[in-house]
Inverse folding.
């Protein structure tokens, strides 16, 4: 390490063991790269958690390995996300001259088992609709008939409705156009402004957590708001057998991700074998 840190000892604000100016510089760099707001929050949260364990600028490979071992109870997806944050941070810190060696260099990759599609069953979906009020019903419809994520549901605005198409900007700023299902058309045609205006933030839409709380009140356990998105992907694939179309509608950059949203039922497998 070169022994230098930005700012003087008197002005550096520390957050845990993380110098505040270093964190600010890294986050500014993250924003400059075009990272989505959600990615920015995750990166910051991960680094602060790591800083509570070891000094990020002085951390050794053993510190990083021990920290990752301390996360053994997290899901593989979460642990993989931590590794991504640490590798990104140290690639930046190395280029910025804050460290001489990358302490993540000895980390192996985190193996994430293939995820299984988990669409909500029809009977559970009917139960959710039966228990839902008008606002929650529209959230359910946007999940299972448009495949929207909870953050996308929260942010729908009348300007996003282009005739019979719903224009959505999702993760990574990727835009997509989703044909409006007849179950949604009538309701969306009546909207002015935000579909779900915030009850506490004037002129803004509700938060993703608000959408989750509304949906979780009516979804039978163990189903989650994301089960609605799996339902949409599975239904569209069963009808079209077009994985590329489903990929576009879900806003995925990788078709392998889309495959995790499309459950192939036993009837389809039986038909495939019998067609030989």
């Amino acid at each position: 390490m070169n022994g230098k840190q930005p700012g003087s000892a008197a002005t550096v604000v520390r957050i845990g063991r993380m110098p505040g100016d270093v964190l600010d510089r890294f986050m500014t760099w993250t924003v400059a790269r075009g990272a989505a707001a959600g990615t920015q929050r995750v990166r910051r949260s991960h680094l602060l958690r790591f800083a509570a364990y070891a000094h990020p600028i002085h951390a050794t490979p053993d510190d990083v390995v021990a920290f990752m071992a301390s996360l053994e109870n997290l899901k593989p997806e979460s642990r993989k996300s931590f590794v991504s944050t640490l590798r990104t941070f140290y690639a930046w810190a190395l280029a910025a001259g804050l460290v001489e060696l990358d302490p993540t260099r000895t980390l192996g990759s985190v193996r994430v088992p293939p995820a299984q599609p988990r669409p909500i069953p029809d009977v559970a979906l009917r139960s959710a609709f039966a228990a839902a009020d008008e606002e929650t019903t529209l959230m359910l419809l946007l999940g299972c008939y448009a495949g929207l994520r909870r953050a996308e549901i929260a942010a729908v605005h009348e300007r996003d409705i282009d005739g019979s198409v719903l224009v959505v900007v999702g993760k990574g700023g990727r835009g997509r156009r989703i044909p409006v299902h007849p179950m949604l058309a009538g309701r969306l045609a009546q909207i002015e402004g935000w579909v779900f205006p915030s009850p506490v933030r004037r002129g803004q839409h509700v938060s993703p957590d608000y959408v989750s709380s509304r949906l979780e009140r009516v979804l039978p356990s163990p189903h989650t708001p994301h089960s609605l998105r799996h339902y949409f992907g599975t239904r569209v694939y069963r009808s079209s057998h077009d994985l590329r179309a489903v990929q576009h509608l879900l806003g995925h950059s990788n078709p392998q991700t889309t495959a995790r949203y499309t459950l192939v039922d036993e009837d389809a497998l039986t038909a495939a074998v019998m067609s030989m």
Observations:
- The domain at 122-274 is CATH 1.10.443.10 (hpI Integrase; Chain A).
- The chain has two domains: 14-95, 122-274.
